[in-house]
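Box 3.1 — From sequence to structure: Aminopeptidase
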Amino acid sequence: MKKISLLVFSLFFITTATIAQEKKEKKKTQQGHTDQNKFRQMKDVLATPNDQHTASGAPGHQYTQQKVDYVMELRLDEANNKLYGDEKITYHNNSKDKLEYLWVQLDQNMRADDSKTPLARAGAAAAWATPNNFKSTYMKESKGFGFNIEKVETDGKPLSHFINRTMMRINLPKPLASGETFKFRIKWNYKINNSVKDGGRSGFEDFPDGNNNYTIAQFFPRLAVYNNVEGWQNMQFWGRSEFALEFGDYDVKITVPADHIMEASGQLQNEKEVLTKKQRKRYAEAMKSFKDPVMIVTQEEAEKNEKGRSTKMKTWHFKADRVRDFAFATSRKYIWDAMAVNINGNTVMATSLYPKEGNPLWEEHSTRVVANTLEEYSKLTFDYPYPKAVSVHAKNQGMEYPMICFNYGRPKPDGTYSDRVKNGMIGVITHEVGHNFFPMIVNSDERQWTWMDEGLNSFVEILAELDYDPNFNTGNLPKNIVRYMGGDQSNLSPIMSQGDYVKQFGPNAYTKPAAGLYMLRQTIMGPELFDHAFRTYSKRWMFKHPTPADFFRSMEDASGMDLDWFWRGWFYTTDVTDIGIKQVKPLYLTDKPSERVKKLQEQYKQYFDNLGDLVYVTDKKEDANAKAMDKYADGKEVPSYIYSVEFEKPGGLVMPIIVELTYADGTTERQTFPAQIWMKNDKTVKRVFASTQEIKSIKVDPDLETADVDTSNNSWPKPKADKFDEFKNKVKG
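Predicted structure (token representation):
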């Protein structure tokens, strides 16, 4: 028989206002309260819109941002693992303000001998430690890291400056007016850290064969951001919360041993001077290969190269326009492959550099993952605007920079690897290449709001990974965040927390925002609405500095959906989702009004007389009359089974109620009630379901779409407890 699905039956009730009027004399005076409804608007939380960051979430007509250009000459001293730099900086004051000074970031000072970072780490005595850890913890071993600033000058004259740990203030000779530029020079050097032994987001790895793999970033004094939101973003770098940077143009020359292979942010300017004729020919072939990578330097050639030690030097010249940072990688051990990627008619090069220790895994997957990431991210955001994206293999790193990133994932010495290692490598390459979009182009303030780059990036990463492998375990779905959200509340932080003090940093800044956005796309908004809104936000803020409010407002502005309830709950609180079935009550059609209805019919006779014929619903099986509706059915099938279902919400978050009904014949039917069903009652709500078949079971959130932390109340009838559950209940009792 055809089912009449999910019809709503209700008794006729006198309005709440009427009943309230009748009980007015009995009503007691109650204390007033403020609006705590979960659906109240966020005007009390979000920054007031202005002509730079508008109410729609778009940049305003007065939006400005600074520009910083760098011309650098770098030299790598491989024998002593030191890097020397001489940089000329042009600062463009595009703001409306006069600036008395500039702030420069000195990230390498985080690991200097006098760094405060180790002193800010609380912890009890460890029961064991490696000798190196013991030395660094208790013996105050001097390692000599941190910047050595040799010169700070303008027009050849010393420039007043003051170093405050990881920040340096440049005292300007006179205030820099709006529209003016200021040019100055910083000459520096520092000892490069061993990223495997000393840790760090960049540095070098030393191999038993005597060679090093240099993955170099945060290596030069970089201007901090100045804007109308933070003023100067000059929060100290404690090692976790990453970087807020300005866009600019880079002209960089890097001198390294002549037998090194190198990649960096930007386009190579002197390929004839640094590449062999064979390498240039192979790269030209790669520029036409859109299916498979082409080997520019083979493993055999790399193994031969790593056995030598050239005493000569070679200078590589790169230029990068409209980027917010610069990084490079160099070694004589590199295998090099590349392939072309078609991004909406524009050819972009996907490239990988890796020592033989990365094979066969890297040769099989790295460049293909880079290409897939560029394609999938471009679909959901904007066409990738840079000429290339490079993945470099580093043992312990996963870190991103414009056009280049450093990624882990190493097979065993015999070349074998587990699925876990392979998937970890695919995941980290997707993630780090994806960072080209967030925050290298959509340039949010990482120092303040980690989730705006890590969370948004981790969300798009889900879709890219599933495109590369439909069975990929992304680890960022709503079901993956349940254990974290259901944990000890004293060990949780809202997503909207500054990154340095966030507890459980990974779940908070990566998984929870990613899972929330996936939930928005799949369950709350739908892909079509979500994708348009997300793309709108991404395009609006390309090469600009968005805030959280710009994201929230853009998503609502472009979709026509009020999502304040979601942002407030998911991002500003540590509330959890817990929606279940409190009660299921069978109801029956009848032609007999209940005693309560009879009294109402007497009291409001005129009202009921105007309604005409009535059928009734009762919870008394003995009064049932299945044919009560037959003469009014107009040939349509009348439902034989009616159920009143009361849903409860022990959790603090409001979410859609996803209901799956299983009928007597084994078929299922699903309906989603929007989150707004909780607007009038935050504790319980009722719905009535009717069908021509008996409903055998009801389940809430059957596919674990809403991060429900307790699914024990999600099913009716409740599953029978096994003996272990019975034992646990007895123990609790």
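Summary of the box: Confidence is low (pLDDT under 50) at residues 1-20.
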